[in-house]
Design goal:
121 residues, five-stranded mixed β-sheet, 4 helices, 5 strands
Length: 121
């Protein structure tokens, strides 16, 4: 992937041992949360439009623990990267409030610095 192209990265919390369908739903929640942030902020619309025009790249990664996911979230916010953490409602496989997925949006170089060490899911 080009380092300067915009993309969304999703980091799945493997500590929770979610099933495939549950994981897919949680990633979808993160995607919609990022979309809402991007389209609701006029300062971010140019970046969002560039992402739309360049293939809408999405990458799904994994981390081992909730602590790791939350540390990545804090680091992302500190770098002013658009990000969100999905917290589960607790109706099916995981406890209420469990941090299931981190979603981040930015250019390739920003996201490589933040999540480049993680493995694909």
């Amino acid at each position: 992937l080009a380092q300067n192209s915009y993309r969304m990265n999703f980091v799945v919390n493997r500590e929770l041992r979610m099933g495939t369908g549950k994981t897919a739903a949680q990633v979808a929640h993160a995607c919609l949360s990022l979309y809402t942030q991007l389209t609701g902020n006029s300062n971010l619309r140019t970046h969002y439009n560039a992402w739309l025009l360049t293939g809408q790249t999405k990458v799904v990664l994994q981390c081992d623990t909730t602590d790791e996911l939350l540390a990545l979230y804090q680091e992302g916010r500190g770098r002013e990267i658009v990000c969100c953490v999905v917290r589960d409602a607790g109706r099916t496989q995981v406890a209420t409030g469990a941090c299931t997925v981190l979603g981040v949006f930015g250019d390739g170089s920003q996201l490589m610095e933040l999540t480049g060490h993680l493995k694909l899911l």
